[in-house]
Amino acid sequence: MPGDKSISHRALMFGAVAVGRTRITGLLTGEDVLRTAAACRAMGAAISEGGAGEWTVDGVGVGGLAEPDQVLDLGNSGTSTRLLLGLVATHDITTFFTGDASLTRRPMARVTEPLTQMGARFVARSGGRLPIAVTGAREPLPIEYRLPVASAQVKSAVLLAGLNTPGHTIVIEPEPTRDHSETMLRHFGAAVTVEPYENRGRRIALTGQPELVARDVAVPRDPSSAAFPLVAALIVPGSRVMLPGIGINPLRSGLLKTLQEMGADIALENRREEGGEPVADVVAKAGTLEGVTVPPERAPSMIDEFPILAVAASCARGRTVMQGLAELKVKESNRLAAIARGLEVNGVRLEMGEDSLMVEGCDGPPPGGGRVATHMDHRIAMSFLVMGLAARRAVTVDDGSFIDTSFPGFVDLMTKLGAKIARAAPA
Ligand code: S3P
Q1: Could you say which of 23, 28, 146, 170 is the most buried, measured as most Cβ atoms within 10 Å of its Cβ?
Q2: Does ligand 1 come within 6 angstroms of the Cβ of 153?
Q3: Predicted confidence (pLDDT) at residue 242 exceeds the cutoff of 80
Q4: 5-218 has which CATH code?
Q5: Whether the CB of 249 sits within 6 Å of ligand 1
Q6: What is d(CA 147, CA 172) in angstroms, rounded to the nearest whole number?
Q7: 419 and 389 Cβ atoms separated by less than 8 Å
Q8: Domain ranges of the chain
Q9: Burial zone of 88 (CB within 10 Å; 0-12 exposed, 13-18 middle, 19+ buried)
Q10: Contact criterion met (CB below 8 Å) for 336 and 328
């Protein structure tokens, strides 16, 4: 399995503003992460790929980023864009950001709003969308910011801006989201405290202007990528797949929990820690699945996994209800609509709500035979290819090229597991 995308972005960014040489093993070399590497290079960090998958980053120190000569093109990557907007917001430089047709449709006001409070100035297209120009604050102000949406990207943007800000930058998250930034900031020597907030939330405080010290980072394997062969193993009769060294951070493992509630035969073996994150070897065996209701508060811990859960649900017995899906509408595509349409063209019955989805399971193989519009979204492409492995008729996706943003080698790996994935004749 490839390295974790979220952790790979962060390892490069924190390495870029640390003092000294950071060595990274297991870095994801998908296009999204390569965009982050290119942007950090353009701002003065020296980043190179050594032998045996080891990467090195020679950082410039907190506050040391240089103004890039050219526009930063972040391709398809929302994580690169939002986190880097945070990083440059408290540097006294002017930076221009753009991206592809998917990224330039996505909302950025969710980060420019708190970063403006910290003193940065933005010029964005209508709706706060890319392209965006940002002039960072000369004298940044620390803020206490309560997240209006459950988003680790927004939390991380504010924390990254807080690095070059005197005093304490505080983020309150009413719903907990992935905590890789907090964990890695500590690893690089920053003072970060996390306290409980109200029922389920957290209050995160970062002490500004630390000297970040270069560290070694071992990137665990991505649970969001592992989700595809995992669900394939569950829904293709006779399968057994072992996925070694997969991240099982509780703020990322909502899919595992949901599949187990559905009756999936999944075992977590050899639990251990790698790079400060919990990992395990995940063993999945095919069997029957039952429909379940996924509560809305679980959504942040599986936000990228709803497309593949919908595929599992289409093979299950009974209905699966997913709630709290509003954020799916602003991912690489409108994922809620893309999932619904993909199920529909493959003969699966469903009901889509404003922020919910009900999938009527087929109690076995779904009909298939559809051609799925992927809308530049890697996870829609991979999910429906996995559906094709179980469906009665082949499933076609209109564009597989975006798979490389997060999971280079997906087709080869699935082929080794026995999948038959072929290039279709043009429609
Ligand atoms: C990510 C956070 C999530 C997720 C994305 C990666 C991160 O986005 O969907 O793939 O690395 O922080 P949101 O923060 O917008 O929910």
Answers
A1: 28
A2: yes
A3: yes
A4: 3.65.10.10
A5: no
A6: 6
A7: yes
A8: 5-218, 223-416
A9: buried
A10: yes
For the segment 184-193, the average pLDDT, to the nearest whole number, is: 98
Write the single-letter amino acid at 294.
V
84's CB contacts (< 8 A; 6+ apart) are: 13, 36, 39, 72, 74, 97
Is the CB of residue 359 less than 8 Å from the CB of residue 292? no
Q: How many CB atoms lie within 10 A of CB 165?
A: 25
- 281 tagged catalytic: no
Q: What is the structure's pLDDT at 427?
A: 65
Ligand 1 centroid–CA 40 distance in Å is 19
Q: What is the DSSP string of 272-310?
A: EEETTEEEEEEEEE----B--EE-GGGGGGGTT-HHHHH
CB of 156 sitting under 6 A from ligand 1: yes
Per-residue model confidence (pLDDT) at position 50: 87
Which pLDDT tens digit goes with each residue over 9-41?
Answer: 999 999 999 999 999 999 999 999 999 999 999
CA 239 to centroid of ligand 1, rounded, Å: 31
Q: Is the pLDDT of residue 51 over 90?
A: no
CA distances (Å), origin 361, targets 92, 160, 289, 338, 367: 54, 43, 9, 18, 11
What global pTM score does this model have? 0.98
3-state DSSP call for residue 43?
Answer: coil
**In this structure, which amino acid lies at residue 368?**
G
- Return the amino acid letter for 310: A
Residue with tokens 């002039």: 135
CA–CA distance, 63 with 325 (Å, rounded to integer):
37
| Tokens 């907030």 sit on residue | 197
What number does CATH give the domain 223-416? 3.65.10.10
User: What does the pLDDT average to over 44-54?
Assistant: 90
Give residue-wise pLDDT tens across range 74-121.
999 999 999 999 999 999 999 999 999 999 999 999 999 999 999 999
Atom in ligand 1 nearest the alpha carbon of residue 327: 16
**Helix residue ranges per DSSP H, 269-409:** 306-315, 335-345, 378-390
Which pLDDT score is estimated for 233?
98
Average pLDDT over residues 196-211: 97
Integer Cα distance of 344 and 38 in angstroms: 39
Q: How far is the CA of 257 from the centre of ligand 1 (A)?
A: 19
- Which residue's entry shows tokens 């790929």? 49
